[in-house]
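Researcher: We're teaching a course module on how sequence relates to structure. For the next exercise, students receive a sequence and then see the predicted structure as tokens, so they can try to spot secondary structure elements on their own. Here is the exercise chain.
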Amino acid sequence: MSKLYKLSLQMYWAEEDEKARIRIPKLKELLHEILGYTKNEINIMEERYFSNDIAKKLTGEQVLKIAQPFKDWNVTPSLRDNATNEFIGYNPAQLYLQPPSPKDHYCDEPMVGREHLVDPVEFYRQEDEKRRAYIAAQNFRNTHTTVTCPYCHSTNTSKISTTSKVINTALFGIFGNKRKHQWHCNGCGSDF
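Model: And here is the predicted structure for the students to work with:
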């Protein structure tokens, strides 16, 4: 036996909605013409702000045939599974686009060999190392100023300490030039 469906329909809109004033009379006409509801049944649906099933135990072909006239008037019934009442969608064409139900068991042997698998322990270890290295580099950049040597354009520079300036002045007196500079280039050896 093939799967059966039901169609549901909302029969109320905001009263100020201009489109609703056009749709509701046509909707009543379609319920009568397509599905055979009596005028009395349709009036009851409208009075109760009907939003419920309009047809049940339908085959896929019947769903598509019934829904098309409603869709032509921009009224799309929702599609549900008849047995479970599970919502499928607003477009009856989705009836054929639904994925198959998941199985409990697919195959007896793996489809690929171990060489195709990712070792989760190694994968996450490498990811953690990359993250830690990135954070360390960011912290280093945030705490250390990068100064470029004006002579050789190297970024391998270091700040000349106050102790170094005092020693240089003590050894060379007024001829010591470290006291005039702030940075030392480790690449070319110049002070600037």
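Model: If you want an answer key for the exercise: The CA atoms of residues 134 and 191 lie 31 Å apart. The mean pLDDT is 77.
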